[in-house]
Structure formats: C-alpha cells, structure tokens
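I am still getting used to backbone structure tokens and would like to learn alongside you. Label the sequence line and the structure token line clearly, so we can match residues to local backbone shapes. Would you write everything just below, so we can both look at the same thing?
***
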Amino acid sequence: MPAPITLTGRLMRLEPMCEDHLEPLLAAATEDRTSFGYTYVPKDRAAVRRYLDVAADDLRAHAGVAFATVDLRTGRVVGSTRFRELEYWNAGVWPPRHGHVNPSQVPDAAEIGSTWLVPGAHRTGINVEAKLLMLTHAFETWRVHRVSFKADTRNERSRTAILALGATFEGVRRAHFPASEGGVRDSALFSILSSEWQAAKNLLTARLARHGVQSPEQPADQPLEQSVQQSAEQSGAAQPTPVAA
C-alpha cells in the first residue's frame, strides 16, 4: 500500500483519510447540508463508515487517495476531497486497466473529485489552496500528463469553479454516472494538461493571494510546501490510525 500523503498549506491541511476522521467527518457532513446540492456527501454514521472503507480499498488498490480537509484556523475537519481514477500507463498491459500498476507505483494521470466543504468554509480560500496543493503534487511530484475533473451537468457552481482553476471544458458524457440523488446523470468533463500547468498554477496563486496567502518564493522545480507520512515520522509526530479493512 502506498504511503499516505499529507499536503499542508497556510489555510488548510489535507490529511490522509483514516479511522480517526470518522467522527469529525460525520460532524461536518451533518452540520449543514444545504450547499451540497448535486455532490454526494455521506449523510449518517453508516454512510461515513462506508466512505472510509472505500477510501481504504482505493488506497490499497492504488486507485485513489482520499483526504480529510482541515481548517488550520480552527483545527476542525470541514470537508473532503480525493485523487480518483489513477491511471498507470506503464504497467505492462494494454490497454491500461485497474489492478495493474506501474513498477514505480506513480500514476501517469489522475482525477481530482469527490470534493465537498461545509458552507462556512466556502469563499475562504480553503478550496483554492487545496486544489493548488493537489495539482502541484500531481504535476510536480507525480509528473502526471493530465489531471481531470467532472461535474454533474446541472451543477453550475461546480462547473464554474472547475473552469476557474484554469481547466479546459472537454464536453459532456451522456448517461455517464450515478446521480447523487439517484438516477443517472450527464457529466461535464474538464482537464488540465502538464503543458498547461504553469499557467493554471499562476492563476491559482494569484487567487490565493486575494485571501491574504502569499506563496513562498521557490525554484521552478520545487513543489509547494508538502509533507508525506515519512517526514512526519522523522519529526516524531503522531500518526493517525489506519482505516480498518
């Protein structure tokens, strides 16, 4: 199983989703559901339990990396996001398929999704910084060729937010995915390519500055501040309890 990733910014921290997050995620998911709209958010303890189990299964299968989003001002979990649909193009099989991973265990493409935040975390810069950290990790550490996004075609707010990341609208895939409220939805598809990353990074950095966050100066090949579990171990920090199988 790959080492969990922790990404830390000035406003928020993305922690590897684990058993310790059950109660905090439940509290966030049930606090105020008015803004969740077309996004799936677990609605009770049993649903959060399944949410954690799926995250653990995806991590073991190298298919996804799920995070709990922590507001550093309050220390509270305010939502979740994840890398999904990790693609491995050098696993020795054609066409690439789930269950076959590159020898390096590093993906060639990824999707960012399953993102939700409590209403109080909207328009605070938390989502902008989370996307900046995740995209930086994908493009500058994993060196992926593409990061994809998708949204229910009815979800204008999510579609607008994805475009504001610097992503390109690719089109609509009809009858693509189960809808959060039941039935089948059409999905709007978006992507950022590695060749487009620097422009998108500049855009996100400028947006984040409007929230009073100035990224530190760094070499072009140096990712934003981030840490992995091993670095926390070196510092003696306590590690979260892994999700039970």
In short: Residues 216-245 have pLDDT under 50 and may be disordered. The first strand starts at residue 5 and ends at 8. The two ends are 12 Å apart (CA to CA).
